[in-house]
Amino acid sequence: MKLPLLLLTASLACLALAEETKDAPAPTTDRVGFPAGYQKSFQVLRTVKHEKEGKVVTVYGNAAAASITNVTQLPYPYGSVIVMETALLPKDGTGKPEVAGMHVMRREKGFGAAYEANRSGEWEYTEYHADGSYITPPAKSATCSACHIKAGKEKDFVYQARLGGTGK
Ligand code: HEC
Question: How many domains does the chain have?
Fold first, then answer.
């Protein structure tokens, strides 16, 4: 009960925040990088199917990110990359879900400074289409960082990944 409520509160608060942070300071270059081949080379940390909305959300982590299985191990090691993929379920119920986009965050030493007041630890953020083009380029990613502040320093600004839900 507690977690969904927390997430809902965070989402509502961040809707207002998104408007405020649209043009806030952010990195000008992409130091996150499109995670080519992540479906094969990363581990699945969490999957949630939203039947009603016709989509499935899958969170992947590279080896560094996947090494975190318990809050006592935080923060995430430098080099951690977490991908949150949204795929649309086929309308006729057959065939494979089609990737609509992916949110990506990477943690490296000194990352995140460009977000200034909206910094969430040492993470930088971008959002890509499946072909690697931008949905949210680095320069517009202050919104991401500002909302992830609310995940809290004690979770290293990562809402769930492997640590939320069932822990699997
Ligand atoms: C309105 C608040 C909000 C904004 C804005 C936001 N996020 Fe998140 N993000 C969340 C929440 C809440 C979750 C957890 C979702 C879940 O697991 O069901 C999440 C999950 C993630 C995850 C998976 C790891 C985790 O924290 O559980 C990644 C990666 C991610 N977001 C990247 C981004 C990127 C990149 C952007 C900007 C393009 C962004 N986020 C913008 C709230 C936000």
Answer: 1
